[in-house]
From TrEMBL:
Pfam families: LysM. The chain crosses the membrane at residues 25-42. Residues 70-112 form the LysM domain. CDD domains: LysM (cd00118). It comes from the Eukaryota. InterPro entries: LysM, LysM_dom_sf. This is LysM domain-containing protein. Keywords: Membrane, Transmembrane, Transmembrane helix.
Length: 119
């Protein structure tokens, strides 16, 4: 004897069971996640030129770390400024500095860096 299942959608295609619907939904979720991953990779690659420009700007800043006139900041010493600005002759070029240990924030000094180019 043959048993027939009741199909209310007779003539409208196969009836999907809940397992088939769950499998289909899972594959759609996987597809969406992969698409988002690929899009995020492309977004990062489009951001690369801006990042490269920042690197170039930072290198330009490193080539000219200090202006000719420098204002001493909080916690700086002549030694740290000398290293930062590549000027080993700060005391010699600033006759108003009588004691190298008496440096305070706001003190204005002249920098003659070896990397500094005059126009």
């Amino acid at each position: 004897m043959q048993v027939m299942a009741f199909n209310p959608r007779k003539g409208k295609g196969p009836v999907l069971c809940s397992k088939d619907i769950a499998d289909a939904a899972s594959w759609y979720c996987v597809f969406v996640l992969v698409a988002l991953l690929v899009l995020s990779m492309f977004r990062d690659s489009f951001m690369l030129p801006n990042h490269a420009n920042n690197i170039i700007d930072n290198n330009q800043l490193l080539s000219h770390p200090c202006d000719e006139i420098y204002v001493v900041g909080e916690g700086e010493t002549l030694h740290s400024i000398s290293d930062k600005c590549d000027d080993p002759f700060i005391v010699e070029n600033n006759p108003h500095i009588h004691d190298p240990d008496d440096v305070f924030p706001g003190l204005v000094i002249k920098i003659t860096s070896s990397h500094h180019t005059y126009k």
